[in-house]
């Protein structure tokens, strides 16, 4: 079943998450129509290879053209329109930057895998539960309801101001009419009666002015309370969700809803400001003793201007944190002289601001680093799929400044990966006579000069964003706080779900907990130090826990990803636990686990039964990335042979724990079948028989552990079969044990 087919079968709450990351940059129609083709391409590799990305982009356009021909025959007008629009988008937007579409598609596929992994996990962790709090959802609904009510109140006040204006015009006309009369006429009884009517009208005007000012004051107060309390909390919650999403957590949403609230409130405040301007205009035409306008209007206008500034200041946010396109799963880690991207948004979406706001990017002011590239750009509504007022910097590069001695500061392999920096942004908004200077900053970033520093830098990013919601504590690692073990384990599971498509279950997390603490502990109570996580070596080892775990992530990603996604790699299980699991199983039952003593190693252990009925266990020397680069792990499991005493070599691996036939579990991942061997005449080069690697181990009578094999011997399956027919087991043993010499 294709990945897209699995996505379509998800529950609605997960489908809503999928919907959030498909937009006009990569429309969902194309994902749906070209599902199998898209999943069969290596978009991640293309994201780092411009030539490969260009080929994939051209092939993608060809695929769209083929779909366009098909739907044209079916006369599906809507789909024809959408496909033409997509084709124009692909040619226009990505032709000059094909790696960008590769990054987008790679990210979408990765997010799908993460959501599929999250959907398969039965239990939510404490962090994820806190993000989905029903109280938070209720507050979101209340904010939207109150914003709508405020908007209606401001519009109703508009009508009151208009009524007041009409009433004053009538008063002004009647008053001027009387003023134009001759003195004798003014003494008539009719005129005196009219004067009494004018006084009554003036009293009504005074009452209406006070009423309008009171209504305006209430609207301003409601906006003030909403911004100060509920809306500020909503924005802080969104920023916290963004932090969690950056370290692998659930995809954060809600920014469009916040934009709607911010925009409506800004429109309401500008509407109130126009109402106050209208009152000032009415004041110039008519005033009197006790007039409330000159007393109240300046205070109200000052409050409106303050609220507008406060609203604009809070609306200037970093929508997408700094990230190198080459490492999309490792945001906030920036390498010197390597481009990174960052996107900002103004949550107040007003058409008159389009292309009028220029944003400047700088790095924190310690003068150690500077930003190279285009660091000033205008916000616009054209580049975002949803029409938001935003700007994306795509060509910024951090550069370390030279010291006075002419050499660079700490750049090199020893650059401190616990030193935090900040990318700052500033702009000025000029609108309706108001000038507002706005500033915002990214979450803390870590600078590296060598890609080998990336694992430890990423550990710093994880620890910071797990431990604090303070967006700007650059001295955090001067005294890093401990983390709750339950939350840390949840984040570690996210590393696997986001990076390699499948999170960790409770048993796997239990093993990691014991690895971290050296004992069985309560998740909720145990506090783990930063040093224990990333600084101190594991007992008896020359590496830290994090280095060990990062090496496993790298192993999965590059060599056993399909097996991991299918759930066939138990991985995190101790030697003691694996023997408990295997001891009562059928001989030949095996499981796969990660090595605890070798970085980035995977091994398998199988159970066997001796002639006297005793159970014995065998574990092969761990396979590392060097050996797995020579032969796929699934093929190793298929072809693995063991020589025991004088017996004929045989494959001891029969059932994947608990009882899955090996070929049923791994068959679809075999590169070819053993009997599919070319004849000599098919070999092409001078009639040679193409060879394949056969992994072989030898077990002596006095040992239950296979020797370290010369493991990958160049021997075709057909040749091996012939040897078994014509040579004794001893001769075969001699053949596989001897070293190859140059011919």
TrEMBL record:
<keyword id="KW-0963">Cytoplasm</keyword>
<dbReference type="GO" id="GO:0005737">
    <property type="term" value="C:cytoplasm"/>
</dbReference>
<dbReference type="GO" id="GO:0060337">
    <property type="term" value="P:type I interferon-mediated signaling pathway"/>
</dbReference>
<keyword id="KW-0805">Transcription regulation</keyword>
<dbReference type="GO" id="GO:0060333">
    <property type="term" value="P:type II interferon-mediated signaling pathway"/>
</dbReference>
<dbReference type="Pfam" id="PF21354">
    <property type="entry name" value="STAT_linker"/>
</dbReference>
<dbReference type="InterPro" id="IPR013800">
    <property type="entry name" value="STAT_TF_alpha"/>
</dbReference>
<keyword id="KW-0804">Transcription</keyword>
<dbReference type="GO" id="GO:0051607">
    <property type="term" value="P:defense response to virus"/>
</dbReference>
<dbReference type="InterPro" id="IPR015988">
    <property type="entry name" value="STAT_TF_CC"/>
</dbReference>
<dbReference type="Pfam" id="PF02864">
    <property type="entry name" value="STAT_bind"/>
</dbReference>
<keyword id="KW-0238">DNA-binding</keyword>
<keyword id="KW-0727">SH2 domain</keyword>
<dbReference type="InterPro" id="IPR029839">
    <property type="entry name" value="STAT4_DBD"/>
</dbReference>
<dbReference type="Pfam" id="PF01017">
    <property type="entry name" value="STAT_alpha"/>
</dbReference>
<dbReference type="Pfam" id="PF00017">
    <property type="entry name" value="SH2"/>
</dbReference>
<dbReference type="InterPro" id="IPR012345">
    <property type="entry name" value="STAT_TF_DNA-bd_N"/>
</dbReference>
<dbReference type="GO" id="GO:0007259">
    <property type="term" value="P:cell surface receptor signaling pathway via JAK-STAT"/>
</dbReference>
<dbReference type="InterPro" id="IPR008967">
    <property type="entry name" value="p53-like_TF_DNA-bd_sf"/>
</dbReference>
<dbReference type="InterPro" id="IPR036535">
    <property type="entry name" value="STAT_N_sf"/>
</dbReference>
<keyword id="KW-0539">Nucleus</keyword>
<dbReference type="Pfam" id="PF02865">
    <property type="entry name" value="STAT_int"/>
</dbReference>
<dbReference type="GO" id="GO:0003677">
    <property type="term" value="F:DNA binding"/>
</dbReference>
<comment type="similarity">
    <text>Belongs to the transcription factor STAT family.</text>
</comment>
<keyword id="KW-1017">Isopeptide bond</keyword>
<keyword id="KW-0488">Methylation</keyword>
<dbReference type="InterPro" id="IPR013801">
    <property type="entry name" value="STAT_TF_DNA-bd"/>
</dbReference>
<keyword id="KW-0013">ADP-ribosylation</keyword>
<dbReference type="InterPro" id="IPR036860">
    <property type="entry name" value="SH2_dom_sf"/>
</dbReference>
<dbReference type="InterPro" id="IPR000980">
    <property type="entry name" value="SH2"/>
</dbReference>
<protein>
    <recommendedName>
        <fullName>Signal transducer and activator of transcription</fullName>
    </recommendedName>
</protein>
<dbReference type="InterPro" id="IPR001217">
    <property type="entry name" value="STAT"/>
</dbReference>
<feature type="domain" description="SH2">
    <location>
        <begin position="564"/>
        <end position="666"/>
    </location>
</feature>
<keyword id="KW-0175">Coiled coil</keyword>
<keyword id="KW-0832">Ubl conjugation</keyword>
<dbReference type="InterPro" id="IPR048988">
    <property type="entry name" value="STAT_linker"/>
</dbReference>
<dbReference type="GO" id="GO:0005654">
    <property type="term" value="C:nucleoplasm"/>
</dbReference>
<dbReference type="InterPro" id="IPR046991">
    <property type="entry name" value="STAT4_CC"/>
</dbReference>
<dbReference type="InterPro" id="IPR013799">
    <property type="entry name" value="STAT_TF_prot_interaction"/>
</dbReference>
<keyword id="KW-0010">Activator</keyword>
<dbReference type="GO" id="GO:0042981">
    <property type="term" value="P:regulation of apoptotic process"/>
</dbReference>
<dbReference type="GO" id="GO:0000981">
    <property type="term" value="F:DNA-binding transcription factor activity, RNA polymerase II-specific"/>
</dbReference>
């Amino acid at each position: 079943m294709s990945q897209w087919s699995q996505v379509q079968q998800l529950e609605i709450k997960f489908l809503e998450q999928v919907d959030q990351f498909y937009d006009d940059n990569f429309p969902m129609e194309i994902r749906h129509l070209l599902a199998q083709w898209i999943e069969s391409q290596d978009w991640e590799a293309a994201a780092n290879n411009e030539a490969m990305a260009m080929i994939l982009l051209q092939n993608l356009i060809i695929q769209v053209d083929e779909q366009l021909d098909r739907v044209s025959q079916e006369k599906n007008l809507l789909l024809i329109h959408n496909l033409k629009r997509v084709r124009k988008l692909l040619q226009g937007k990505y032709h000059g930057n094909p790696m960008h579409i590769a990054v987008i598609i790679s990210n979408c596929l990765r997010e799908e895998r993460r959501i599929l992994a999250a959907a398969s996990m039965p239990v939510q962790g404490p962090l994820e539960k806190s993000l989905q709090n029903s109280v938070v959802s209720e507050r979101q609904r209340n904010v939207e309801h109150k914003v709508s009510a405020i908007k209606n109140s401001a519009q109703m006040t508009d009508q009151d101001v208009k009524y007041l204006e009409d009433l004053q015009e009538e008063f002004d006309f009647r008053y001027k009419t009387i003023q134009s009369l001759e003195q004798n006429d003014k003494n008539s009884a009719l005129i005196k009666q009219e004067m009494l009517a004018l006084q009554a009208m003036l009293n009504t005007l005074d009452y209406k002015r006070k009423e309008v000012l009171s209504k305006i004051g209430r609207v301003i107060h409601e906006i003030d309370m909403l911004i100060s309390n509920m809306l500020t909390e909503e924005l802080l919650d969104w920023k916290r969700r963004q932090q969690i999403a950056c370290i692998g957590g659930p995809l954060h949403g809600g920014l469009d809803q916040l934009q709607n609230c911010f925009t409506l409130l800004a429109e309401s405040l500008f509407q109130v400001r126009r109402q106050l301007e209208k009152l000032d205009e009415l004041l110039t035409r008519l005033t009197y003793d006790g007039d409330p306008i000159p007393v109240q209007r300046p205070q109200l206008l000052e409050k409106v201007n303050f609220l507008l500034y406060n609203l604009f200041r809070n609306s200037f946010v970093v929508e997408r944190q700094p990230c190198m396109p080459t490492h999309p799963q490792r945001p906030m880690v920036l390498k010197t002289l390597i481009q990174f991207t960052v996107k900002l948004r103004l949550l107040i979406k007003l058409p008159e601001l389009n292309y009028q706001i220029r944003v400047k990017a700088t790095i924190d002011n310690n003068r150690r680093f500077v930003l190279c590239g285009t660091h000033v750009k205008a916000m616009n509504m054209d580049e975002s799929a949803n029409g938001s007022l935003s700007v994306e910097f795509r060509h910024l590069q951090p550069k370390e400044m030279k010291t006075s001695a002419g050499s660079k500061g700490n750049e090199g392999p020893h650059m401190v990966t616990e030193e935090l920096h900040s990318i700052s942004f500033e702009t000025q908004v000029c609108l309706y006579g108001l000038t507002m200077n706005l500033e915002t900053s990214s979450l803390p970033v870590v600078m590296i000069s060598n890609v080998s520093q990336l694992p430890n830098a990423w550990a710093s990013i994880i620890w910071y964003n797990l431990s604090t919601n303070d967006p700007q504590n650059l001295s955090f690692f001067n005294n890093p706080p401990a983390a709750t073990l339950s939350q840390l384990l949840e984040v570690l599971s996210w590393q696997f779900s986001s990076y390699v498509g499948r999170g960790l279950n409770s048993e796997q997390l239990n093993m990691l907990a014991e690895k971290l603490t050296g004992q069985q502990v309560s998740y909720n109570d145990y506090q783990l130090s930063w040093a224990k996580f990333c600084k101190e070596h594991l007992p008896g080892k020359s590496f830290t826990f994090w280095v060990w775990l990062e090496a496993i992530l790298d192993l999965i990603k590059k060599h056993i990803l399909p097996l991991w996604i299918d759930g066939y790699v138990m991985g995190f299980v101790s030697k003691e636990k694996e023997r408990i699991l295997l001891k009562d199983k059928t001989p030949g039952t095996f499981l796969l686990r990660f090595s605890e003593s070798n970085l980035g190693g995977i091994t398998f252990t199988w159970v066997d039964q001796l002639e006297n009925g005793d159970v014995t266990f065998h574990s092969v020397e761990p396979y590392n990335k060097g050996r797995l680069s020579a032969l796929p792990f699934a093929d190793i499991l298929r072809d693995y042979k063991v020589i025991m005493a004088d017996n004929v070599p045989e494959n001891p691996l029969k059932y994947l724990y608990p009882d899955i036939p090996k070929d049923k579990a791994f068959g679809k991942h075999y590169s070819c079948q053993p009997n599919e061997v070319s004849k000599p005449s098919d070999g092409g080069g001078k009639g040679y028989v193409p060879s394949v690697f056969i992994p072989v181990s030898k077990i002596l009578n006095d040992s239950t552990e296979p020797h370290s094999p010369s493991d990958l011997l160049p021997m075709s399956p057909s040749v091996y079969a012939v040897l078994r027919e014509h040579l004794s087991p001893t001769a075969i043993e001699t053949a596989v044990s001897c070293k190859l010499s140059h011919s």
